[in-house]
Structure prediction request, 531 residues.
Amino acid sequence: MLKKTVRWGADVGCQSKIKPLDLKADMSEFGLKGKLAEGELGFNRALTKRDAKKDAEDAIPASDAITQDQWSEREQQIAERAESVRRGLTTWLSTTAAGIRNFIHDCTPIDIYPDQLREAIKSEENEYRHYELDDVSEAKQSHSAAIVELQQFRARHGDRIGDRTPDIKKNVEQTVAILVFIMLLEGGFNALLFKDAQASGLLGGLMIAFAVSAVNVCFGVITGFFGMRYALNHPHIAMKIIGGVVLAVGLTSGILLNFFVAHFRDAVETGLIAATAAGTMGEFSMFNIAPGDVIAGMFPNIIGLHSFIALGLLFMGLTVFGLAVYEGYDRISDRYPGYGRVWRKERKAYERRQQVRNEVRDDLSDYFTQCRMWFETQLSRHVSAKREIEKALNELEARRDIAMAIAAKAADQERSLKVAYRQAHRRARNQLRDKLGEQAACPAYFDEIVTPQLPPFDYTKEREQANAAIKAIDQNLKALNMTREWLEQHIQQVQKGLSSIDKKVGEEIEKVREGKSAGKAFVSVDEARRA
Prediction:
């Protein structure tokens, strides 16, 4: 079974794996060793006849001896040895039978009732559902609140945003990646143009270029996000004015920054030419150029650049600045301020709700898988128990046949030795009749040869116990099959119900998200809550 099995299956059916019968009872443990375990009593027939003749000469036993207590010593030895064989076999078989009875008891499963089993399955299933109820309720409430907020936003701004929805594929991470990429691209390009203007070469050019590129991109993003979006799309006049101010300041700052960098590089180029002509190239440094002189030289002819490298820097900087403005305006969030925020909030709440629903479905799926595994395991264990019980009875029958053969062999030897002893005793008495006189009469027990009795070896009790166990196993197999068929139907109903719920919830949420329920521009708050 699975490591995490169903709780209701811990005390139903066969609780542990069925192991084959292991009979440890050996004949040597009950005094049957060597030839004695094969039914050989170990008495010589010739010596038995000789003892019979000696006993006849001594007039032993007396003619009126009719009980075993008055038998001769040799006859008592024969009976005692044969009885020890039968007693050892009886004990060996009784121990074997006890072990088999215990084995049958261990293999006998606890009764399974389909009705009780179904209720137990449903009970634990409901526990799984209630275990996730808090998370489901919390996710549903959070999603409902996000939907209400979205619908209220659309109700307030519907005349401006219309029926359009923000592109949910846009995300901040993608925009940030694009901004970082263009910043690195501009930085690398600027570094190549600044590397000849200072002593540290490309490394120094990278440091300066990336600093300028980062400031340029930040100006562009702020201008697009807080300036252009608010100035063009914000519904409140005050925010429009603030957005216009930010837009004007941002555009001016970005353009002036790029022109300053271009004029600075132009001044560096002019300084390089002058230092080369004067022969003081080793003493030249771009940091000797005062920024104030560069700013003063920008006016009145701000586009008057003499170096092609400076023109390249200006074009690259303005291009990156324009891309940053566009990314801030259209890519970070929706153009309409606040629309993307509430939309993403609703999307995250919806995804969380779907995640919780999927977790509940996964928990139920795992639970139903464990139920299936339990049924498969129980069916295999019941079949295995039935087979092992039958094998145990076959083993008992085989040992019974072996014991009866050994006991019969010992009984034949006992009878044969007693017959030999009595016939020799009778012949010797007849020969000594004249000498013994009246004592020459044979004992009374010589008139009949007593045949040794074999052990009963009756195992009706074990057979009845095995039949009862097999009957219980068959009933359980029937109950397991019935319950397993019900479980498959129940699983299909649960899956169908979950699918229908998902479909209905998805349709309602889609109506709410699109705002087109019953042809209306937006959905009411009550309908949003019901969704």
